[in-house]
Amino acid sequence: MLTNRSQTVAKKEMTLVERLYLPAILHGMKITVSHFFKKKVTINYPEERREFAKVYRGQHVLKRDDKGAERCTACGLCAVACPAEAITMVASERKKGEENLYREEKYASVYEINMLRCIFCGLCEDACPKEAIFLTDRIVPSTFDRGSNIYGKDILVETMEKRIDISPRQTKEVLDFKTHKEYAHNKL
Ligand code: SF4
Ligand code: SF4
Which atom of ligand 1 approaches the CA of 125 most closely? Predict the structure, then answer.
């Protein structure tokens, strides 16, 4: 005997009430009927949809500045901050004449997020000193193959024709924090 928690199992005779089964059935029915009068917690999705929280964290966007240049400077802070190790990138040096494409002298020639690893925690957004990456209210669609869940720049970088609004994430607290130059994060 490894513990003192062992019990001897004995076959107990059922009482008359237990053998009738009816009280147990009625008790079960009572519980079922009581649920008819309770507030429904389910909805008829997809006909009905719940309202998302303003700060819902869905599919990422890599932002461009107002002139259309990519904001990301491939510093790698988002990848370091990511607890799921979902972000990979390749840094490249901006060439002469590419100033309109990339805002900084260094940029990410490859930037990928593995959506199967991502837990949508938002730490990449918090870590970014260039306001280049944000999570949005867009849902990442489900797929039947794993490969298409690696999102590259073709999906992540916004286009100037269809810019992604990230203003709901720029709360007063976030904007205030970014004015504090004493934090190393805000000096970059
Ligand atoms: S949201 Fe979190 S898990 Fe997803 S890429 Fe960003 S840091 Fe990684
Ligand atoms: S932290 Fe921002 S600037 Fe740095 S690599 Fe990530 S997205 Fe680009």
Answer: 6
Which amino acid, residue 80?
Answer: V
Query: What tens digit of pLDDT does each residue of 37-80 get?
Result: 999 889 998 899 888 888 899 999 999 999 999 999 999 999 99
Q: How far is the CA of 11 from the centre of ligand 1 (A)?
A: 55
DSSP string, 20-58: H-HHHHHHHHHHHHHHHTSPP----TTTS-PPPPTT---
Decide if 70 is inside a domain.
yes
Distance CA 156, CA 136 (A): 11
Nearest CA to ligand 1 atom 6: 124
Flag whether 53 is in a domain.
no
pTM: predicted TM-score of the whole model, two decimal places:
0.77
Contact assessment for residue 151 and residue 117, using Cβ atoms and an 8 Å cutoff: no
Q: Is residue 100 part of a domain?
A: yes
Q: What is the CATH number of the domain that holds 177?
A: 3.30.70.3270
Q: How far apart are CA 10 and CA 55, in angstroms?
A: 57
Count of domains observed in the chain = 1
Domain containing 177 equals 60-186
Cβ count near 122 (within 10 Å) = 16
What's the maximum distance between 2 C-alpha atoms anywhere in the chain? 92
Measured in Å, residue 85 CA sits from the centre of ligand 1 at 8
**Omega within 30 of 0 (cis) for the link into 46:** yes
